[in-house]
Design brief:
By secondary structure, the protein is an alpha/beta fold. The protein has a single domain, classed as Rossmann fold (3-Layer(aba) Sandwich). Helix content is 35%, strand content 25%. A hairpin with a 2-residue loop joins β3 and β4. The longest helix is centred in the C-terminal third of the chain and has 27 residues. The N terminus is likely disordered. The structure holds adenine. The site of adenine has 12 residues, from β5, β9, β10 and α8.
């Protein structure tokens, strides 16, 4: 394991392969269609619900993975939250473990905090991730529960070049929030809130692959409207906006070495 990690860290090849993890089908569809990516039915083991689409864009290999639908409770909704997020990204990173200059982008929707300057439709690059619902009040476990991971890629330059905002993404397993969540999201200094980022970044840390979060705001967490209503109202527009933002991010990172990002 140590050898693999040091090979990854020492890579000097320009980034030419990007893994894009998108939880929901509706979020992924416009981008997959825009890039003419093809479904790869051999990417994941046949018993998992996840989907993979691949192709090339501007000379770079692009793989998009999504969580697929829930077949266990037979609800047919998209799998979401930290469990599918960690597993889909772990399996995809294992599959691509021999790619030396891989970057993972977690693209999707998020709630935004107006106290941090977020507005509906804004695109954020995440400077770091943390959990707000892993409360383990035993001193040694507290930092583990929060699971803070700083983004190793310098997103400030990229955000300035592409006109995006930046900030920490706080992750939990609920679309809504409790008062206790509020305290922890504030402590995490979060600009945006989602249900996947910290789990995906954890899988990336295990594989020593740089993690990059690209999030479009569908609802205001500290606003006056019910999250689920705002989310559903803005999901389609946000997915279109992801489709526009993602190719710009690819263009920015492809061809650069990890330390140049
Ligand atoms: N995805 C979009 N909006 C969200 C929110 N408010 N919380 C968690 N995930 C989200």
């Amino acid at each position: 394991m140590r050898v693999v990690l040091s090979i990854r860290l020492a890579t000097t090849s320009p980034t030419n392969s990007v893994l894009i993890v998108i939880a929901m089908e509706a979020e992924a569809k416009p981008f997959v269609e825009h890039l003419d990516l093809l479904k790869d039915d051999n990417f994941f083991p046949s018993h998992v619900p996840f989907h993979a689409f691949s192709g090339t864009h501007n000379g770079s290999r692009v793989t998009v993975v999504t969580n697929g639908k829930d077949h266990i409770y037979e609800t047919g909704v998209d799998n979401c939250g930290t469990v599918p997020a960690a597993v889909v990204s772990f399996l995809a990173l294992e599959k691509l473990k021999d790619v030396p200059s891989l970057v993972l982008i977690n693209a999707g929707t998020c709630g935004g905090f107006q106290r941090k300057g977020a507005a509906i439709g804004d695109v954020f690059l995440t400077t770091g991730v943390a959990n707000h619902d892993r409360r383990i009040p035993i001193p040694d476990f507290i930092p583990y529960g929060v699971g803070k991971l700083d983004t190793k890629v310098s997103v400030l330059n990229m955000a300035a070049a592409l006109g995006f905002k930046t900030g920490v993404c706080t992750t939990g397993n609920s679309l809504d929030k409790t008062e206790e969540d509020d305290k922890h999201m504030l402590a995490n200094d979060a600009s945006v809130k989602d249900m996947e980022a910290a789990a995906i970044a954890w899988s990336c840390a295990l594989h020593q692959v740089p993690y990059l979060g690209l999030k479009v705001v569908t609802d205001i967490v500290d606003g006056n409207f019910a999250t689920q209503d705002e989310f559903l109202e803005n999901l389609h527009t946000a997915s279109q906006s992801l489709q526009k933002a993602l190719p710009n991010v690819l263009e920015y990172i492809v061809g650069k070495q990890h330390h140049e990002l």
